[in-house]
Design goal:
The complex is a heterodimer of chains A (about 240) and B (about 375).
Chain A lengths: L10 H6 L1 H35 L4 H13 L2 H12 L3 H25 L3 H9 L4 H32 L11 H10 L2 H29 L25
Chain B lengths: L1 E8 L9 E8 L4 E5 L6 H8 L7 E6 L2 E2 L5 H6 L1 E4 L11 H5 L1 H5 L4 H14 L16 H12 L6 E5 L7 H18 L2 E6 L2 H7 L2 E6 L3 E6 L1 H6 L4 H7 L3 H6 L4 H4 L6 E3 L4 H11 L3 E6 L2 E7 L20 E3 L4 H10 L4 E5 L5 E6 H9 L2
Parallel strand pairs in B: 3-8, 3-9, 6-7, 7-8, 11-12, 14-15
Antiparallel strand pairs in B: 1-2, 1-4, 4-5, 9-10, 12-13, 15-16
Classes of the chains: A mainly alpha (about 240), B alpha/beta (about 375).
Bound molecules: adenosine-5'-triphosphate (ATP) and magnesium ion.
């Protein structure tokens, strides 16, 4: 438990650990970017396949949903004998949590493309591929971006859990703080990771506005899919 | 230009035919309107022409070539296509939407820009609208962009599925008139779908009336459909006011004008009276070297030796040779007379048209 006797924050500690704060911050960003990036690489083709062939959607959603429900600690424990205390272990866990969010939102976005727009495009002589890349995907972009935002924010939260296997970015501070009853570290880790999540979300929202100027004035709207599970810090 | 030979369509999972053994011959430059009750297979027929739907039986030729033996993508790029809900691409601006097919056809940018400007001008779209997105346009503007887009690569054939259905009647009438004007110049081969018989009558060179199941009930010019409906279904579908609707299709010049009492403005009153007597009216038209000036009645000649002393009155029931019989009848009825004067180019007097002559035309149908 948090030791109440301490001062809430010791600035001298913070200033003397600038180097460490920076490197863990960078690690946090790296873990997140790689997790969401790899998640996108896997989920994008799966989402397109699921969109084209509806009967595949159920098994894909079922499997990624299953991955999503495995508690993060349990997943790390399962992976430890195979991949050890490594980045790989952390990333496998992080990536598998992004898949459901990214696939669901991409499919929701693609199926929200109005039928008449597709009909007109086909009638004008778009090939199936041109239809996908020039019509369906651009129109699904707001939903896809919404999925990426949710994935990024929840991954930033989950990275802190990876501190348990020593690859936790800012989560490392939280874990150490909890172990040594040192409030400054706990607060530092929590505040910085929340700030990172907020900044990333705002940046992605800005990018979406720039990429989809048409969506500000109307056009198809779909509500993003947000899964029920809120990843929380498992100890404390 | 387009020919359907014994075309049928049965959708998978459906027992009934959506289109049954349909044969239609559509000539080059002709506007054929498919009309019929909802679900009669109009859209299905149209979509088989650009292969968005494949027929279950029969052959469709476009420009002499079997559509089933062509690459559907290439076929479609050569056919303009407008659908009821227009289907503009929401993420593309007006200019980009119009440029869709030229882009697919790899035109260079200069040519595309020039074409977009030209089409926007033709369809009365303010250049200011170029960079707007479809959601920022009015319904009428969207329809115009939809039709302009279909014409972008100047395809010889156009398929239009209820292209003006999504706007109110006033805007629709204006779009119809504009489109007729444009078609007058372009002479495209058009298959036009509507369920509105009045729109069909207005737009068509020939109308194909379809019954449920895509059964062709009659294929004829609008005037003939109104004059001689092939059966009870057509008669019923054409509806009330068949005679009046037909009058709208006949021009005054087509039935010819009648001679009426006419005198030169230099004539004597005595002569004017004689002319009135001859035709059995108590008024006469006054012309100046063939140009229409107005009319005088018997009473106004009293005590005046020459017509030059009598200012002629303006005709209120006035039509031209290009007016329809319906307009002529309207002019006569609203002015509570039974005669309209007919003028040609430059106000040249042609003759008169009586309500009796018009009603004869109705009866003869
Ligand atoms: N993809 C499809 N699958 C199965 N049945 C279809 C399909 N498309 C149309 N039909 C059926 O075929 C028939 C003709 O439909 P179609 O759309 O051609 O009618 P329409 O004359 O255009 O009607 P409307 O005036 O309402 O647009 C209808 O009974 C319709 O339910
Ligand atoms: Mg239809």
């Amino acid at each position: 438990m948090i030791a109440l006797a301490d001062e809430l924050i010791r600035w001298d500690w913070v200033f003397s650990h600038g180097q460490e704060i920076w490197s863990r911050f960078v690690q946090h960003v790296e873990l997140t970017v790689i997790a969401v990036g790899v998640g996108l690489l896997i989920s994008f083709p799966l989402a397109i396949v699921a969109h084209r062939h509806r009967f595949l959607y159920t098994p894909i959603a079922w499997f990624t949903g299953l991955l999503y429900t495995i508690p993060s600690i349990a997943l790390f424990v399962i992976l430890l004998p195979i991949t050890g205390l490594s980045y790989t272990t952390a990333e496998i866990g992080l990536v598998s949590y992004t898949l459901l969010i990214l696939i669901r939102n991409t499919v929701v976005g693609l199926s929200g493309v109005p039928e008449d727009v597709k009909e007109a495009a086909r009638g004008m002589g778009y090939t199936q591929r041109e239809l996908l890349w020039r019509v369906e995907l651009p129109l699904a972009l707001p939903a896809i971006m919404a999925g990426i935002r949710i994935a990024v924010v929840s991954t930033i939260g989950l990275v802190t859990v990876a501190a348990l296997i020593g690859r936790g970015g800012l989560g490392q501070f939280i874990l150490e703080g909890l172990q040594t009853f040192f409030n400054t570290e706990i607060l530092l880790g929590a505040v910085l990771s929340v700030a990172l999540a907020l900044a990333a979300d705002a940046a992605l929202l800005g990018a979406q506005r720039v990429l989809t100027p048409w969506s500000r004035t109307g056009g198809p709207r779909t509500r993003p899919f947000i899964p029920w599970k809120k990843p929380g810090f498992p100890i404390g | 230009m387009i020919s359907l030979e014994g075309v049928s369509k049965q959708f998978r999972g459906s027992r009934r035919l959506a289109v049954s053994n349909l044969s239609l011959e559509i000539s080059e430059g002709e506007t054929v309107v498919l009309v019929g009750p909802s679900g009669c297979g109009k859209t299905t027929t149209m979509r088989m022409i650009n292969r968005l739907i494949e027929p279950s039986a029969g052959t469709i030729l476009v420009d002499g070539k079997d559509v089933m033996k062509q690459d559907p993508v290439i076929l479609r790029r050569g056919i303009g296509y407008v659908i009821q809900s227009i289907g503009l691409l929401p993420h593309r601006t007006v200019a980009q939407n119009i440029a869709t097919v030229p882009k697919l056809a790899d035109w260079d940018d200069r040519r595309i820009d020039a074409r977009v400007d030209e089409l926007m001008e033709t369809f009365g779209l303010d250049p200011e609208l170029k960079d707007r997105y479809p959601s920022e346009l009015s319904g009428g503007q969207r329809q115009r962009v939809g039709v302009a887009r279909a014409l972008a690569v100047d395809p010889p054939v156009m398929l239009m599925d209820e292209p003006f259905a999504a706007v109110d009647p006033i805007v629709r009438a204006r779009l119809q008139d504009e489109f007729l004007g444009i078609q007058e110049r372009l002479r495209k081969t058009i298959v036009f779908v509507t369920h509105d018989i009045d729109e069909a009558i207005k737009m068509a060179d020939r109308i194909a009336i379809l019954n449920i199941g895509g059964i062709l009930e009659q294929y004829a010019p609008p005037e003939e459909i109104l004059r001689a409906p092939a059966n009870a279904f057509v008669e019923d579908f054409v509806g009330a006011e068949r005679g009046l609707k037909r009058l709208a299709l006949i021009k005054v010049a087509e039935i010819g004008v009648e001679d009426g009492p006419v005198v030169d403005r230099e004539a004597s009153s005595e002569e004017a009276l004689r002319v009135m007597e001859k035709f059995g009216y108590d008024w006469a038209t006054v012309v100046d070297e063939g140009r229409l000036l107005g009319w005088v009645d018997r009473g106004s000649l009293d005590g005046r030796p020459s017509l030059a002393d009598v200012p002629p009155r303006r005709f209120s029931a006035y039509v031209t040779a290009d007016s329809s019989l319906r307009e002529a009848l309207d002019a006569i009825v609203t002015n509570q007379t039974n005669v309209a004067v007919v003028a040609g180019d430059g106000d040249r007097y042609l003759g008169i048209l009586t309500v009796e002559r018009i009603s004869q035309e109705i009866v003869s149908s």
